[in-house]
Specification:
heterodimer; A: 11 helices; about 75% helix; B: mainly alpha; ABC transporter involved in vitamin B12 uptake, BtuC; globular; membrane (chain B)
């Protein structure tokens, strides 16, 4: 009996861990989406493409400039973030007075452009990016399970970044401005705070979070133009489930859904791709505003 | 007003109210041109290419019924189009149904899916509605990827065109063209009829001011769901017709990129215009045809058109023409 249970655990553990790693990405991506949506009222469809850009920039930094993983982890989000700010200034800023759906359509077009450009430049087969060897120290070796250190690092790094973002928004002065500007932009502007610039910075920060997730993902998945598109639709479902009202809510929902997906892969593998959407349907039927949403 | 909201179809003003099938004079003229084009073009252009345009035009018109008249942006219409294609292909190939029944089966599955997805999605509006439909359509995609009857990555190939009513064989492109033309025109006029019926008036009222429509005693959710189901049904018919024309149903038609494509067609032609989706479908299909050799650049060009339309060209081709001539098309 106990042996049987151990065997089950042996089978299940890797999938559950894999789920947690996926959850780490869901959390980072839905966090970025939630921050952008809160401030700009735009659903950033290009989020997946910007995630992919982060991974590609990391690969380019290594292959072309010899800058290793740690440098990329800082540089890639900055570079992609600056790109995001340029996009916000030149295009998205023109749409704030229009129906919010135009923001969705614009960023969808941007996602097509970015993906197409990378597919032309690098093909769709994918490029390898080796994880740095120092993560060997984090390897977890149980009798029944070997867990590569890099995956442990991804979960830690993602959780730390989410926590840091939460601290910045909840505990710092700039975070207070941000929260205030989300609620009442005109009033905040009347107090002399440059709200348009805050919007640019917010979009840049959200995009940088996506790129950070992309760098984290580069050693796990092959770096390819479609890597973002595969993630982003699931992340949309995660966002609908969590509701975009709270920062912590999107983080918790992201990790939880990754875990649930991993467990489903053990219990009923055929449903693992769709379980997030089924949960979305259930949440919509019972709490249409989302688990952490406010109306 | 017309600039800030996404839907631009305005109610008719009194002097515009007009006769033939509820078309205004300008619209009747435009419909005459469309009809003439449908009748004459197969004698000059390659019928398969024209049939592709007509299928996508019907698809885009069905999509426009939602965004243009109810103000709901669906990002999951590929689910109806693709599933319609699969079911029609399966019905024609495995069940051996005649083409008209096979296309009908595609419409039925679009209807059933529309009830399911619409029932979920109308609980939210705006951006959430778009995300929910996208996610639900992705679920349909995964279903098609795994379900045995769809043939997975291979799709359903070598679908027979069969004989209309079991009598008229449709193997020749030129013969099939007239069937597709009738399907398209019937769908187009049906949508026009729906929009101008009392039901359509309530639909537009929901778009303009939902709380007010509710206060007048209309069950707005029922109207939204009904419009969604109609749109899904016609999308299924369009997908089924396309599967018969090309003899193949694949994952491409159920993928989220197809949902984006129909949005693009409608946007290029003009959201909320009667003829915009038709023009948009013709433009995009022609473009894909001529740019096919450039491979992945087609995606980039489509993206650029998307961005350009949203930033500078929100009325679309037909909307701009209508604006110039001061008529609604």
């Amino acid at each position: 009996m106990i042996e049987n249970l151990l065997f089950e655990l042996e089978m299940a553990a890797p999938q559950v861990i894999l789920g947690l790693v996926n959850g780490a990405f869901y959390a980072l991506l839905s966090l970025g989406l939630a921050i952008i949506f809160g401030m700009l009222n735009v659903i950033n469809f290009a989020h997946g493409a910007q995630f992919m850009m982060g991974a590609f920039v990391a690969w380019m930094l290594l292959a072309w400039a010899g800058i290793p993983y740690w440098g990329a982890l800082v540089l890639a989000p900055l570079l992609v973030g600056v790109f995001g700010m340029a996009v916000e200034r030149t295009m998205i800023a023109r749409l704030y007075k229009l129906d919010h759906l135009y923001g969705l359509l614009l960023t969808f077009g941007l996602a097509l452009i970015i993906e197409g450009v990378f597919r032309n430049g690098f093909g769709s087969s994918g490029l390898p990016y080796a994880p740095p060897p120092e993560f060997g120290a984090l390897d977890l070796d149980f009798d029944f399970l070997f867990l590569p250190g890099y995956r442990v690092w991804v979960v830690i790094a993602s959780a730390a970044m989410c926590l840091l973002t939460w601290l910045v928004i909840e505990k710092t002065k700039i975070g207070a401005y941000l929260r205030a500007a989300t609620e009442r932009p005109e009033l905040v502007q009347a107090f002399g705070i440059n709200v348009p610039r805050m919007m640019t910075l917010t979009y840049g920060a959200g995009v940088a979070l996506a790129a950070f997730a992309g760098v984290l993902a580069a050693p796990i998945y092959s770096v390819n133009p479609a890597m973002g598109a595969n993630f982003i639709i699931t992340v949309f479902a995660v966002v609908v489930i969590g509701g975009m009202g709270s920062i912590m809510g999107s983080v918790v929902t992201g990790f939880a859904l990754g875990l649930i997906e991993g467990m489903t892969r053990v219990i009923y593998p055929e449903a693992s791709a769709t379980v997030v959407f089924v949960i979305m349907a259930i949440v919509l039927l019972t709490r249409p505003a989302g688990l952490f949403g406010r109306g | 007003m017309a600039d800030t909201t996404i839907a631009v179809a305005a109610p008719l003003s009194a002097h515009e109210e007009a006769g033939f099938l509820g078309f205004t004079r300008a619209q009747a003229l435009a419909f005459g041109l469309l009809l003439a084009f449908v009748l004459v073009s197969p004698f000059f252009l390659y019928p398969v290419f024209l049939m592709k345009i007509l299928c996508f035009a019907l698809f885009a018109c069905a999509f426009n019924l939602l965004i243009g008249y109810v103000g709901l942006l669906s990002f999951g219409h590929a689910a109806f189009f693709g599933m319609g294609g699969y079911v029609t292909a399966h019905a024609a190939k495995v069940w051996g149904l005649t083409p008209e029944l096979a296309i009908l089966a595609g419409g039925v599955v679009g209807c059933v899916l529309g009830v399911g997805i619409g029932w979920l999605a109308i609980r939210r509006s705006g951006i959430y509605f778009a995300m929910i439909t996208l996610a639900a359509a992705q679920m349909v995609y995964f279903f098609c990827l795994q379900a045995p009857f769809t043939g997975g990555e291979d799709g359903i190939q070598q679908v027979p065109r069969g004989a209309l009513f079991g009598v008229i064989p449709l193997g020749a492109d030129f013969t099939l063209y007239w069937v597709v033309a009738v399907v398209f025109l019937a769908g187009f006029l049906l949508i026009h009829r729906i929009v101008h019926s009392p039901f359509g008036q309530v639909m537009k009222a929901v778009r303009e001011n939902e709380p007010r429509a509710t206060s007048l005693g209309y069950r707005t959710d029922d109207y939204k769901l009904m419009a969604f189901v109609l749109s899904g049904t016609l999308s299924g018919v369009a997908g089924g017709t396309k599967a018969l024309v090309f003899g193949i149903a694949t994952l491409t038609d159920v993928n989220w990129t197809m949902s984006g494509e129909v949005v693009l067609m409608t946007l290029v032609g003009g959201l909320g215009t009667v003829f915009g989706p038709v023009v948009g479908a013709a433009v995009i299909v022609t473009m894909q045809n001529y740019l096919a050799e450039f491979g992945a650049w087609v995606t980039v060009i489509q993206g650029v058109i998307f961005v350009a339309c949203v930033l500078a060209f929100r009325r679309g081709v037909v909307g701009e023409i209508g604006n110039l001539l001061k008529v609604r098309l």
